Each structure stands twice: as C-alpha cells, then as structure tokens.
C-alpha cells in the first residue's frame, strides 16, 4: 500500500525508480479500488470482479482456487506466469506456473515463503528477498515465451519494520504534517467519528510506536508526536521498495526486455498517512480509495503522460488480457483501459464508480459497512450499520448515516453537506445513479 504523504517537501522524500516508470509512460491520477482492504482488492485485481461476484468480501474470505482469473487466462494463452511475494488470499495460487509467496501477511525479517514444494525460511529482509526471487525467475524463464510476473511486495504494510539500510533515515528531521492531521470530525457521521484508526490514540505501542508514550501526552499533542514516528518508518520501508523496483527495471534494461515489456507499479488500495488524523484504509475517503498507478510500454504509451480517466481495480485484468490479445471472459466486470492510456478515451467511458466495504469484526478498526458513489465532483456515502465489536462510547444504535462531499470545493473531505437542504437535488440524483451502479455490479442494498 504505497501512497506519498499529502504534503511532502521536495527534500522530504524521493522515489526515483518508481518515477522512472511514470517518466517512461503514464501516471493515472484517478485510479480507484472497489473495496479498500487487502484481500478483497487482490481478488478484484485477479478476477476483474467486484467482491459480491468473486466471493471475497473481507480479510476472512478466501479466493476459491477453482475461480477463473487473469493468471489462468494468460497461462492458457501460452504465457509463463509467476506470483512472487504477498498473495494473502487464504488458498494456494492457481493459474501460476511458479509461485513463491508469503504465508498471510508475512514478516519483514527472515520470512517464511511458501512454494508448491513446501515452506522454507529465508534469511534477510523481505523486500530484498522478493526482489531477488523475481529477478531469479526472470533469469530462468523460457527465453522465447511471453511472460506475466506479479511481483507483490509486503511493504509498506503495518507494522512497519524498515530495512537495515534505512533504519536511521530521516533521523533528526521533522516531516511535514497533513493539513488535516488534527481533524476532530465535527459534522462527520457518528460511525465515522468513532472509527479506531486515530494516529497515536489507537496505535500499538510495541509494533507501531516502538517506544513508550511520554507521560501526560494526549489529544492533538499525542497525535503530533506519534505522527513523526509513524511517517518516518513508513517512508523508510518504501525506500527499500523503490530500490527493488529499480533492480527489476535494471534487469529488464540489461536483458534487452525493456522495449517490449509492459511494466506497472500499483497497490491494492490507498492508505491514510495521518490524513483526518487516521492510519489504515477501509473508508471511502480519497486517501484510502485512490490507488497509485504508473505504467510504461515504450512505443505504445507516450512518456511522461498523465491520464485523468476513472479506472478501477476490476479493470486491471481485462486490460492485461487486451494487451495479450486475449478476449476477457464475460464474467469479468471491468473494462480494459488500453485505449485510455494511449490517449484515446472511449466516448462512453465511465463518469462514476461504485464502492463497497463490508464490515467485519477485526477487533481493532471498528469501521462501519458502507457503500457509495464517486463522480468527478461528488461523493455520496451510505453508512448502513453499527460496526461490529463497537462498545462503550461509540454510537449507541445502528441508525444509518449519510455523507455528501463536494470534491471540487472540499478536496480534503472535511464538510458533510448531506443535511443541507440546498443539496437535496444533488443527493437524489446521486442516489439514483448509485442504485443503477449497484445493480450493474450485481450487488444488493444493505
């Protein structure tokens, strides 16, 4: 889950290797996930289907090994296929000739990996090992057959453990803060104001902060103090990811593969980096909803281009197949955006997207189940119930909440307009369109 802080300074952080992909191709500025949580998003990327169709709703669900997905389609078309790194779908991979994956989330240091031959511990730092295994597979592949490699880094997933090379990066520096780090949630739906994702307050002392809280520190002061620990470890982990992106790019250059290989850097969802005072993801706010997406294909994509079309994670699989000359199965709900990145957006391209997060009791985050619609300007979200596991000072009942946000006037999503009578016509239009998109996705109302 890679996202740059909302207010970095030029000197604060650089990702030169990820930038190489964008400079050589296209950066998608409106790429969104349809369910902002690891396992469901990974299932959507593979299957081209929304959660309600592929059966992977929460972290507790598994991808059925018999389910069709892009790896199987490419394998059937003669591609060599490999899955390396984080899989996190609770079943052994199918559709991949080679797989070498972390069990569950995996760990940062001396991790176990799973292959068809069994489980093996490897000495080293997980990001470097995933880079090693990916390059090794590329070196050993069949030289005349096309290939499809999914290199999935664990980093930067919490709890963050920076690699030894970067453990002291940014020491003594004060990192810039998001402008809404001290959001106190005035006017927010009650179920949103009560989520357990507050920087400092809801963090684990042992794994997140790695030090005891100073005595008497609370409120905004606690959030300010914890943010510095939080963001530095995040960026230290990302630095190792960028290094290993560079190693793969360098191998493609040295082996003469760069000119005819599509390279994509993306993530399974966005992440709160202190925005609204939160960490983690799940909610349908921009920082959680947006996915980084840069893509390079020399000769087909203009270097340094920017595309603002609305694309979704369910579109990835159809797009992969489009480039391979394979017709996507009818069960895939997404749509290839190959023409979009080439600068030829179809006239009937989507102007709105549908999102749904299914609540589940993970014991920590207390995020309500919700669904909504996002257009180029508006976002309407329906929070349809009390989060599981909530007790004490949380909302006393399961009364539904609504939120209307004007992305043009309020890009930081601070003001809920739903209860303002002036916006009633907007709400009604959005509800009608949301119902249509929900039906189109094959989903049903809460």
Describe the structure.
The protein has 12 helices and 15 strands. By secondary structure, the protein is α/β, with parallel strands linked by helices. The protein has one domain: 3-Layer(aba) Sandwich (Alkaline Phosphatase, subunit A), CATH 3.40.720.10. A 5-stranded mixed beta sheet has the order 6-5-4-3-7, sandwiched between helices. Helix 1 (16-23) crosses helix 8. Mean pLDDT is 94; it is low at 389-398.
Notable characteristics:
Alkaline Phosphatase, subunit A; 15% strand; four-stranded mixed beta sheet; 446 residues; globular; single chain; alpha/beta
Secondary-structure blueprint of this entry?
Blueprint: H1 16-23, E1 26-28, E2 31-32, H2 38-47, H3 51-54, H4 70-76, E3 80-86, E4 98-102, E5 112-115, E6 118-121, H5 126-140, E7 147-152, H6 190-193, H7 205-209, H8 219-254, E8 263-266, H9 286-289, E9 293-296, E10 305-307, E11 311-312, H10 316-323, H11 338-341, E12 352-357, E13 370-375, E14 378-383, E15 401-406, H12 424-440
Parallel strand pairs: 1-10, 2-11, 3-4, 3-7
Antiparallel strand pairs: 1-9, 4-5, 5-6, 8-9, 12-13, 13-14, 14-15
Helix pairs in contact: 1-8, 5-8
């Amino acid at each position: 889950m890679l996202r740059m802080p909302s207010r970095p300074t030029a000197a604060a952080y650089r990702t030169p290797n990820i930038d190489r992909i964008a400079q050589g191709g296209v950066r998608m500025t409106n790429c969104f996930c349809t369910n902002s949580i690891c396992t469901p998003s990974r299932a959507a990327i593979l299957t081209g289907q929304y959660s309600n169709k592929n059966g992977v709703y929460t972290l507790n669900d598994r991808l059925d090994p018999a389910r069709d997905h892009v790896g199987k389609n490419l394998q059937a078309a003669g591609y060599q296929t490999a899955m390396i790194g984080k899989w996190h779908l609770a079943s052994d991979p199918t559709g991949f000739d080679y797989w070498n994956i972390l069990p569950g989330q995996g760990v940062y240091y001396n991790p176990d990996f799973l292959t068809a031959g069994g489980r093996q511990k490897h000495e080293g730092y997980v990001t470097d090992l995933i880079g090693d295994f990916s390059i090794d597979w590329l070196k050993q592949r069949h030289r005349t057959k096309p290939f499809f490699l999914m290199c999935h880094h664990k980093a930067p997933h919490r709890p963050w453990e920076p690699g030894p090379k970067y453990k002291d990066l940014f020491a003594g520096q004060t990192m810039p803060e998001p402008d809404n780090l001290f959001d106190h949630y005035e006017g927010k739906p009650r179920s949103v104001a009560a989520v357990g994702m507050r920087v400092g307050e809801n963090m684990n002392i042992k794994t997140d902060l790695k030090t005891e809280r100073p005595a008497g520190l609370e409120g905004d002061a606690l959030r300010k103090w914890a943010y510095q620990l939080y963001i530095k470890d995040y960026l230290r982990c990302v630095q190792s990811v960028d290094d290993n992106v560079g190693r793969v790019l360098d191998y493609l250059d040295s082996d003469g593969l760069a000119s005819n290989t599509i390279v994509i850097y993306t993530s399974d969802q966005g992440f709160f980096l202190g925005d609204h005072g939160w960490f983690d993801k799940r909610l349908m706010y921009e920082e959680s909803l947006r996915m980084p997406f840069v893509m390079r294909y020399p000769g087909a994509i203009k270097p340094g281009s920017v595309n603002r079309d609305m694309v979704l994670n369910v579109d990835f699989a159809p797009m992969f197949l489009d480039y391979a000359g394979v017709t996507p199965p009818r069960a895939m709900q997404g749509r290839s955006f190959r023409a979009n990145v080439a600068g030829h957006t179809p006239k009937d391209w989507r102007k709105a997207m549908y999102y749904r997060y299914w609540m589940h009791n993970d014991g920590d985050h207390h995020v309500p189940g919700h669904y909504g619609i996002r257009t180029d300007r508006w976002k309407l979200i329906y929070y349809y119930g009390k989060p599981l596991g909530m007790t004490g000072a949380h909302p006393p009942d399961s009364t539904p909440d609504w939120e209307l946000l004007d992305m043009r006037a309020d890009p930081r999503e601070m003001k809920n307009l739903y209860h303002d009578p002036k916006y009633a016509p907007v709400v009604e239009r959005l509800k009608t369109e949301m119902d249509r998109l929900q039906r189109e996705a094959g989903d049903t109302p809460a």
